[in-house]
Every structure is written in C-alpha cells, then in structure tokens.
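We now fix the convention by which a protein and its fold are recorded. The integers have meaning only within a learned vocabulary of local backbone shapes. A complete example follows; check for yourself that the lines match position by position.
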Amino acid sequence: MSLCLASHATSSPGISGSPRAWSRRAKSMRIVCIMIDTLRYDFFKMGGARREYAPDLDDFAREACWFDHHYVSSFPTVPNREDIMTGRYSFPHHGWAPLPEDAVPMAQILSEAGYLTQLICDTPNLVGRGLGYQRGFQGWNWIRGNENDVVMTRFNKPIRSAMPKNKTRIDEIYFGHYLADLQQWINPNIENEQETFIARTAMSVSQWIEDNYRCKDFLLWVDTFEVHEPYIPPKYLQDKYDPDYRGTPMIYPCYGYADAYTPEEIRNMAALYAGEVDLTSKWVCYILRKLADVGIYDDCLICIMSDHGDYVGEHNRMGKLLLTGPKRNVFTPWIQHDEVNRIPLMIKMPKQTKGRRIAQIVQPVDYLPTILDLCGVKSDLTFDGFSLRPVLEGQRVKWPRTQAYSSNSIRARWPNFWTAINTPDWALHLGGEEADGPVLFDRKRDPNNLENVAGEHPAQVQRMGREYIRFLESVNCAPEKIALMEQKLRA
C-alpha cells in the first residue's frame, strides 16, 4: 500500500534486500500510540498525585489498563525510541544514536504486513539530525520548531535572555544564547494555546483521522515533545498553578542542583511543568474525542506512554540528568530515581470499558512484541521484550520479568552511567565513579529513596546485581562492560 498520507511518503520503506521475517496478521487492528515526552508517573491520580494535573487523561486511565510498575529501559528520548521500535534494549550496547541500519523497526514490520502506517510528531529528535526514526512509516509529518530546531531565522528580532545563567542549561549555545532563550524567538506566539506544539500536533492528527478512519488496519504513532522543557504553558495555566508568582518565569531547568534556586523559583518551575501536563492532557484527549467522533474509538488499541520524567526540585535536582560546564558533560552522572525512571503507561484494548491496574514489571521493549501479538503478525525476529497480551487479557500467567533495568548506556571505563535495577520492593543502583559502591533503597520503608541501605542488606544487593549480570550476558553486552558491573558487586 503506497499512499501520500502527510508531508512525506514511501511504499513499504525499509532495508534494501532485507528478508521478510513476518507473516500476514490474522485479524484487523487499528493501533493508536501516543508518546508524551517527559511526563511523570506521579502527576496522575492513578500514580498518587494529590492534585488533579491531567483531568482528561485521568479519566482515560480509569477505563484503560494502568501499569503500576512501568520503568524506563534505555534513557532518554532517542534511546527510548530505539527500544520501542526494535523491541531490544539499546543501553547495554550504545547510547544516543540514529536508528541502526540493520534494525527492522515496528513501522516497517507492520507496513510490510499490510498495515497503513503514519508518524505525526513535533519531537525534534526523531526525524532531524539524521536520526532516522521515521524509517518504515509510509507517511510522516514532522511539525518543526521545537526546542533548538530553528525553522526560520529572525535576525531583525533580537533574542532576549529568558533566565539568569546560573538557573538554566548552558551547555548548548545558539546565536550567542542558551536554549531557554531560543523557543520564544523561534515561536513568538508560543503562549497562545493554538500555537503550542501539542495543539498543532493534535489538530494534524485529527485531520489524519478524518482522512483515514475507514481503514481497518493502521498504526498511527503520535510523538509530542510538549511536556519537555521549556515549560511555557498558556498564561491561564500559569495562573492556575502559581497565581501569585512575580519573578522571572523558571521555564528551563539548569540540569543541575536545585539549591541554585529560591523556594519560590522551585515552586514556579514545578507549576509551569504542571501547566504543561494539564495542557497536554487536554489536547491528547482532543485526539481521543476525534476517534469517537468518527466512530472508531471503541475499535482501537490505544497506548499512551512516556519516555522518562524530570526532577523539579526532588533530591535537590533540576532536569533529568546532570550537565556541567559550558560544554556537555554527562559523565558525572546522577542516580536516576522514580521521578525520572517510573513512567506512565495506559493501554486500552478494543471494546474495553472497565479499567484495571496491572502489577507486572514492564518496560518499553515490550511494546513491539505486544503489538505484533495482538495483531497476529508472526515474526522470526528476536526481541528482548515480552508480549503484554496475557496480562492485558487478564490471564493468570507467570510473568517472566522480575526486575527492570534502566540506563543511558554502559561504558567500558569509569565514570559510568548508573543503572537503576527496580522491583516493587527494592531499587538498586550500580555505576558512577570507580569508588562508588552499590546504592540500595528499601521502597516499602523509604518510598522517597532517601536512605542507602546497601550496607544493611548485602545479600539483597548480590541477588539483584547477579541477576542483572545474567541479563547483560543474555543480551550480548560486551564482556569488558560486564566486568565493570561485576566490579561494583565486589566493592
């Protein structure tokens, strides 16, 4: 099937000469996947939020399957998308990178199995910079201008400094300015709700639905960067969450320590983040209402997820990782706590009307095998993830995953990125500087992960750590990398 669906189209794009490793699906399936970048688990009522930040999505969560233990696998944005599109962990092998040339991504599999496939995104790190994550989609529409994506220069309008240097990210320089300064120069009307990226993306998706709702077999992948900084929600949402603030808007975190800010500034950044969550919830549900308007909502498999969260003051941190100095340095890494690592996942099956909470430990590598299983597409490819179909259908099965593994990448030298090893009861972290020992948190006694109890529970450290080593061996991680992780267990 070859149709011009949006800005770009190809017919069954993929790897030249690659063998078909799948067979035609057994049944029709309309699949709608909505990725919301930087959306935290605990900003949902189902995730323990004390206040309602995402009212529309909270409603959706109550009628879908909500996953209580969904954790980042590879981190952040681009490694996450590789895991999703290939069903394989990337962090044991490499970090942020283009879609590998030998990868057979989700969209290619479904395109060649007869599905209509469309990507609509405003995330700047999928199509641009040669990353190639549109590969396999028959149609793709990139709504440009987000973050540092300069669509049109505006020489006659000077760039204004948005925040003090010590309170914002300074590792990337554009036209002599920082990232915090760039967005309102690229998009001067960004505080107008209709001009926000999630609104523009949702309206594009709405048009696609109108043009394609009669198709019974499609994958629609929506990828929005909206919750990601800079946090510039419409003014009415700024007033909703922080009506009395009169200082400089804290729109972009410093990717450093929160003690650079006053308490009022921390509250303001958290409020602006909350406004972004509220805005995104509204416009994502605009998409869901369009599915209902054209009469296919109840027939769709709908998956709504995030790639990671963000710190807004917790653990004395701002941003999702530590960047130091005028040039990016991520090799003074942070332990990644639940504010970043535990992420929302909601899946509504066709005809589902009653919500359920799912207790199994799941990760983004599970999405591809799940979708193929539900579509009846048989594949000879191997995946690191597992199909969620049994738990989605309420079957009583022994779930094969007992721990979740989350990291940016594993290096063959020190310092190293931390790996978070999570279970419902424990959180173990291995990595950092060569002298850093294991860090263990008891989730039941210490839900905020404040006290390292590795010294009190050496057997627990060894059990979780040794299982992690076996995992790395199973995914063919380089022996020299595994040796560094084993060194941590001997500390």
Observations:
- The chain has two domains: 25-392, 410-489.
